[in-house]
Amino acid sequence: MGEINMEEQLNCALCPNICRCECPVLQVSGREAVAPSGKARLAAMLNRGQLEWDEQVLEAVSNCLFCRGCTIHCPFDELSLCDELLNTRLQARAAGARLSPVDPCLSNLKKYGSPYGQKTESAAAGEEGAAVLYFAGCTSRANHPAAIETALSLLDRAGVSWRMIDEDCCGFPAEVWGDEELARQLAAENRRKIAESGASTLVTNCPECWLTFTERYPAWEEELPLEVIDGPTYFLQLMKEGCLEPRQTDLGKVSYHDPCIWARSARKTAEPREILSMIPGLSIEEPQAYGELTRCCGGGSMFQLAFPEKAAAIADRRLAEFPADAAIITACPFCREGLYRENRPVLELVELIARACNR
User: Does the pLDDT of residue 221 top 60, yes or no?
Assistant: First the structure.
């Protein structure tokens, strides 16, 4: 568990809060308690012993997507409200506070290693001893396994020798819901399996998994013994090397949605657009907010499982910012799930690459 920084919490709580215009939860709920400053005030009062934990307070401080939109206008360079709220929420379990909507998800994590329930078939696959390990993540496995098959087909087409392990959830959902012990257990199990695979490179298309592997695992003393590469960077390199040769697709206009983690944590905004530019015949039009100024789809930090109605409202607000005649492309399983509507084509980036390379 990280250290509470009361000075930073109070800086946020007493700030004029220009960030409120970038907080997607505030925009759809209108509740002052879930504004960035509102959550900071609650956290500060909790940590100073001026407020007692209960589910209502936990619900308010849990209304954070970890999208880091509040950092865009923040005058405090060292402040990470997401981390401050997470560290505060980790204390809730010790105080006996529970967020009832996530109790079934935590039970699933403990029983199956996935917050979604019994895992789909995830036994180790691929070539024994392969240098590249592909990590799909529990969200893709549960909600869009076709994207996994597509990514693996691209590796095959590029001549990459790959393998997969019998994955458990990366552990971040357990931490964000307050069970750090379970998060560390899942991390330790994944690290063991990854180390035993003998791979030298891990590729993942899940931003939450990437951030957990690169930042949280070292903090939990479970640093992975191999290079971790994000999917957009890896598949772009395969295209540059000529291992994947895109041709014109059946899509005309596309618009790229920047996932929050790729845009503001990993600073991966150029790579997906370079991929789009290498596909002949695509017309590319940006949404109203893009790059590091992107807006969240509502799926960050497993928000859609705890607060599905708010997540859907945030996604609808984001969808209105895209050109009406463009297919939406994204590089995140959470974003694809959140933005998907029956009347609106939404593709993961690997699915677009496959359309271009398989024609």
Answer: yes
* β-pair partners for 207: none
Helix 6-13 to helix 81-94 angle, to the nearest 10 degrees? 110
Phi and psi at 89, nearest 5°, equal -65, -30
Single out the residue of 195, 194, 193, 172 nearest to residue 182, CA to CA.
172
Percentage of residues in the chain with pLDDT exceeding 90? 80
Q: Does 104 map to a domain?
A: no
Do 145 and 232 lie in one domain? The reply is yes
The amino acid at residue 135 is: F
How many angstroms separate the CA atoms of 233 and 202, rounded? 12
pLDDT band per the 50, 70, 90 thresholds, residue 289: very high
Residue 173: partners with Cβ closer than 8 Å, 6 or more residues away: 105, 109, 115, 302, 305
Q: Domain limits at 206?
A: 125-238
Is there a domain that residue 81 lies in? Answer: yes
Among candidates 258, 247, 252, which has minimal Cα distance to 345?
252
Domain count, the chain: 3
The strand pairing partners of 253, in sequence order, are: 283
Q: Dump pLDDT digits (tens) for 32-80.
A: 999 998 998 899 899 889 999 999 999 999 999 999 999 988 888 888 8
Please indicate, yes or no, whether residues 231 and 245 belong to a single structural domain of this protein.
no
